[in-house]
Amino acid sequence: MTSTTAPEAVKEGLGFRLTAEQEEIRKLAREFSDKEITQQVAEHHDQHSEFPHKIAEKARELGLMNCIVPEEYGGIGLGALEECLIAEELAHGCMGISLSIMANNLAIVPTKLYGTDEQKDKYLNKIMEPGEFCAYALSEPEVGSDPASLKTTAVKKGDKYVINGVKRWITGGGVANWYVVFATTDPDARHKGVSAFLVDKDTPGVSIGKKEDMMGQRASYT
């Protein structure tokens, strides 16, 4: 019988050290947080429940915002771990401002994973433009975030769908230019009958309700 030597990686165990690039990303996010999200800034946005437009645009310019958009659509194509590092460091300054900057990713993920080439070309390029925001519209007044119980319906008429329903507690909903809206096309199928639709804010029939007066994370427009 011959003996074998275990690979070095096995000897050392599973590693959780960040790569040099990840450390640089974390450092950039922390420096941005320390400079732009000071205690005074955080208190102002929290007390006045004010969305941080100027801070978000600065984060967009640095690539901290929309960081998971693929390079082919103008983004820098970071992964989930890098996204978490950025969110954590921004939250060091203010959780509400961090949420406002990172919330686009909620709608970006389903768009880049399941959108058609035409949809991705339109919406992922669009979200990289100054002043553009998007939102993930799942939750509803009666059922919360349970997709199997959604009341919003989507009925196909010709080559289009007519969507009827009410969404609530949508993070970034008041500032978003477009939404990923979840609706049921087959109520009897419960969660298997749910589809996602890309809906522009200026689509006829879309209206925005009042801003929620939240207990925390008040810089976020929900």
Textual characterization of the structure:
The radius of gyration is 20 Å and the shape is globular. The termini are far apart. The model has no long low-confidence stretch (mean pLDDT 93). It has eight helices and five strands, in the order ααααααααβββββ. It is α+β, with helices and mostly antiparallel strands. The chain folds into two domains: 17-126, Acyl-CoA dehydrogenase/oxidase, N-terminal domain (Butyryl-Coa Dehydrogenase, subunit A, domain 1, Orthogonal Bundle); 134-200, Beta Barrel (Butyryl-CoA Dehydrogenase, subunit A, domain 2), CATH 2.40.110.10.
Secondary-structure topology with pairs:
Layout: H1 8-12, H2 20-36, H3 39-47, H4 53-62, H5 80-93, H6 95-102, H7 104-114, H8 117-126, E1 134-137, E2 153-157, E3 160-164, E4 178-184, E5 194-200
Parallel strand pairs: 1-4
Antiparallel strand pairs: 2-3, 4-5
Helix pairs in contact: 2-5, 5-6
Entry keywords:
2 domains, 13% strand, single chain, Butyryl-CoA Dehydrogenase, subunit A, domain 2, 8 helices, 5 strands, 38% helix, 222 residues, Butyryl-Coa Dehydrogenase, subunit A, domain 1, alpha+beta, two-stranded antiparallel ribbon
Give a summary of the structure in a few sentences:
With 222 residues, the chain is α+β, with helices and mostly antiparallel strands. Helices cover 38% and strands 13% of the residues. The chain has 2 domains: 17-126, Orthogonal Bundle (Butyryl-Coa Dehydrogenase, subunit A, domain 1), CATH 1.10.540.10; 134-200, Butyryl-CoA Dehydrogenase, subunit A, domain 2, CATH 2.40.110.
